[in-house]
Design a protein that fits this description.
The complex is a heterodimer of chains A (299) and B (254). Chain A has 299 residues and is α/β, with parallel strands linked by helices. Chain A is built from 9 helices and 13 strands. Chain B folds into 2 domains: 101 residues, no CATH class; 132 residues, no CATH class. Classes of the chains: A alpha/beta (299), B alpha+beta (254). Strand 8 of chain A pairs antiparallel with strand 1 of chain B.
């Protein structure tokens, strides 16, 4: 966590936990629990979806406890609906606080998106218009999350398929303003940036440069699917169901030229392969990081 | 904005919400459809994870259509998807196209108990030596009150739910299904033993007995109020499953 405003105190906050290492990490899947415990692979960190570990007990907790004892951990929420019009779900925030107290993760992150409305949960990361009232709501929600959890969170840039006529701000400016106002960090999802910029015909390198890069605390890499829109233009879907695309690796290389080596997660949630396939992608990220570390040292 | 978006997500016949735009002027409906598809597919996938035997019994196409209809009418109320599916068995019971499979709803009930057991709180069983000591005084046995594992559940069904479930765990599922007598009524005991959830067939009287224990009855009282069953065998099964957490004399009511 290199951002100056990450030092902004949080009311009721505890000392900042250790940061994730600038290494390759892998999203932890139940399919791989036993393999990881048996082989102790050399992986920089693991990341879990918070909502999958909110049962009272059972095998998921048993495995996570054992794996967490050996590796740095990132807890990544997918259900807070920070961009939503509903008030934050305080019961859910309580569950998150308990989960964070139990596992003491090095990082907690959530999405710039909404997933609940009128009490219903849609289990998808839905888009919001970029304007003043969304900005005020998102900042109020992040303030509340950080106050309740007693720590800074990382906010992930979204993958989107539509834009809103009522938007008045560029997405990158919106994110920069949220980071400035709340002191949260940025989880730079390079695949999301690529997907959104293709889908909305933006210059992805300009988009990345306009983000508050000093606040980056983690990077996500994932695979996407390729479809077309009604006019035949490419429409990329953030599917997490394929290897990281070549174009996303190239963009990752560019991102590291701006932010240097960062904890980098390989996300895979569908068509999950054997663990070594994901470990190889995490290793690939470390090779790119090592090149940038050398460049930094030489500079 | 979210209200119109949310309304449309669950209604395939509703038009795409107003106010969306695309860089190339293409119809936003096709792009919006990605969200609508993501929502329904992910909720149906969550139900398929929780109800694999129901899916196997009706086939994937039937299951996904049934689950999508449930999801549209009953979206989750919590972001914790492990808890999504509480009302699914009742929905299945009233789902007209499934009326020809009268056992289907109870199989869904059994699978839901399995999900609950999977995520239930952890608790260490009473060590066997201690249990033996507490069972030693035969005269005190009827007043003994058992605390059972938080994962423990029972289900009584008019259908062979345990056999149907077990058949889908077999190597040769169709052979195992062929051996199921659909006229059988069965009762199930569901309990997490270590890292696995066991589903065991028990006598209907034993299910009544365990149900009464779960409601706080002492051993003697629970046994007397239940239909005929093999008490020592049932206690032995609870012990072997690690289901007995504590055994202490019931407080005497004076």
């Amino acid at each position: 966590m290199t951002s100056a405003n990450m030092n902004r105190p949080i009311r009721g906050g505890a000392a900042a936990p250790a940061a994730l290492p600038a290494r390759g990490g892998v999203g932890l899947k139940p399919e791989h629990f036993r393999h990881i415990l048996e082989t102790q692979p050399d992986i920089g960190f693991f990341e879990v979806h918070a909502e999958n570990y909110m049962g009272a007990g059972g095998p998921f907790h048993r495995y996570l406890e054992r794996i967490r004892a050996d590796y740095p951990l990132s807890i990544h929420g997918v259900g807070l609906s920070i961009g939503g019009e509903d008030p934050l779900d305080e019961d859910h925030l309580d569950r998150l606080a308990a989960l964070l107290a139990r596992y003491q993760p090095e990082s907690f992150s959530e999405h710039l998106a909404w997933s609940s409305h009128g009490g219903a949960f849609f289990n998808d990361l839905l888009p919001a218009p970029w304007h003043a009232s969304t900005l005020a709501r998102v900042c109020a929600h992040i303030d509340r999350v950080q106050e309740r959890l007693g720590r800074h969170m990382l906010l992930e840039n979204p993958a989107t398929y539509v834009e809103f006529e009522v938007s008045t701000m560029a997405e990158s400016d919106f994110i920069a303003e949220v980071v400035k106002r709340t002191g949260c960090g940025l989880l730079l999802d390079v695949n999301n940036a690529y997907v959104s910029c293709i889908n909305h015909h933006r210059d992805v390198r300009a988009y990345l440069r306009a983000l508050p890069l000093a606040a980056v605390g983690e990077i996500h890499l994932a695979g996407h699917a390729r479809e077309v829109d009604a006019a035949g233009a490419p429409l990329l879907i953030d599917s997490h169901g394929a290897p990281v695309a070549e174009a996303v690796w190239a963009l990752y290389d560019f991102a590291l030229s701006l932010v240097g080596p960062q904890p980098t997660l390989i996300e895979r949630d569908n068509d999950i392969p054997e663990f070594p396939v994901l470990a190889a992608e995490a290793h690939q990220a470390e090779i790119v990081m090592a090149r940038h570390a050398k460049l930094e040292a030489a500079a | 904005m979210s209200a119109a978006f949310a309304y449309t997500l669950l209604r395939p016949e509703a038009p795409c919400p107003a106010g969306l735009k695309t860089w190339n002027g293409s119809d936003p409906a096709q792009r919006f459809a990605v969200y609508r598809n993501n929502v329904i597919v992910s909720l149906v996938d969550a139900l398929a994870d929780s109800f694999p035997v129901v899916q196997a019994l009706v086939g994937e196409d039937f299951f996904r259509a049934m689950a999508a209809e449930f999801a549209r009418g009953t979206p989750p109320r919590s972001p914790v998807l492990a808890w999504y599916g509480t009302g699914f068995a009742d929905f299945v019971a009233d789902f007209p196209p499934a009326a020809g499979l009268p056992y289907l709803a109870d199989v869904a009930r059994l699978e839901w108990l399995r999900v609950e057991a999977w995520h239930a709180a952890d608790a260490d069983p009473l060590p066997l030596a201690e249990m033996a000591a507490r069972l030693a005084d035969a005269a005190a046995l009827p007043a003994l009150r058992l605390t059972l594992h938080p994962s423990l559940r029972v289900l009584r069904s008019a259908h062979p739910v345990v056999s149907l479930w077990a058949a889908h765990q077999a190597e040769d599922v169709s052979a195992a299904l062929g051996a199921v007598d659909f006229a059988d009524a069965e009762a199930a005991l569901v309990v997490r033993d270590g890292l696995d959830v066991d589903i065991l067939r028990i006598e209907a009287g034993a299910a009544e007995f365990v149900d009464k224990l779960l409601r706080g009855a002492a051993l003697g009282e629970a046994a007397q109020a239940s239909g005929p069953f093999d008490l020592p065998a049932t206690l032995g099964m609870l012990l072997r499953s690690g289901a007995i957490i504590e055994a202490a004399p019931a407080r005497r009511i004076s």
